[in-house]
Each structure stands twice: as C-alpha cells, then as structure tokens.
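Narrative summary of target 7.
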Amino acid sequence: MKRLIKVALCVSFIFYLLALAVLLFLGTRGYGWVDLTLMEYIKRFSNFVPFKTISTYIEALSSGSMNRDIPIKNLVGNLIMFLPMGIYLPYLIKRTNKVSKFSIAMIIVLFVIEVIQLVTRRGSFDIDDFILNMLGALLGFGIWKMKFVQKLLKKPLEDSAFPFESL
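Modeled conformation, tokenized:
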C-alpha cells in the first residue's frame, strides 16, 4: 500500500507539472506585443506594485464593473494553482518539510517562473500573481502538515528519503 501511494503521488506530480507548464507557458497573448522591444514589453506587461491587481479585481467584484468570471478565475485560480506544490514539495524533497525552507524554495520557484514568463513573452510579471501563488502554496503546506495527511502520506517516506530512489 505504501508503495502504491508513493507511485501514485510521483506520477500525479509529473502530470501536475505538465499542467502547470501548459497553464503558465503555452497560453497565448495577443499579437500586439510582437514589435515591442523586451524593455517595452516589460513596462507594458509588468506589475511591481503589491495588491494593485488584487484590489482592482476585488473592487470590480464589489462594484459589478467587470464580468465576475474574470476576477474570480484570476484570484482563485492563482491561489489554487500552487496549492498542490505545498503537498508535493515537502513529500518529494524532505529538506523542504519546514515552513522556512519551503517558503524559500517556493519564492525561488515562483520568481523564476515569473521571469521566464516575462522574458519568453508568454505572460507577465505580476507581483500579485506571485503573492497569490505563494499563499496557495502555503495553504497546501498547511494541509500537508495536518495530522491526517501526515499519517496517510508521510509514512511511506520512512522507506526512502526521496521517493524516486526506489522506483
């Protein structure tokens, strides 16, 4: 049973990473950016002001000035997108089992993703996306730390420090 849980989590993690790659890098942006230099693109498609986008969406929800689907998909989607990482990362990499190390790892991962999206012009650098993704990952980490989940998932780690070693 332990081996089955371990294999299922490893396989599901691979599918999760593929889904993330599709969501984060294979989406298309309009063609208006084609003639922009990288610096112009960065200026146009970046938000470095914390809570600017979040407050805009919350205001739009309360005032009804925007189709409700847009802010809800953006806010909830960014929150949920990295929630599974809060479970997978400490399960697969035992060193990230403490909130401080997990947070540092996630900050690095999220920063790299935001920069890649910007440089490849497959998205934008939005500090609010970063904040929501980090909150989602921390929520997942909180779920990981629950006693029920620990009993269900952590016990297979006793067989191996890194689940992929024994596959």
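The helical segments are 2-25, 38-44, 52-63, 69-81, 85-92, 99-119, 127-144, 147-154.
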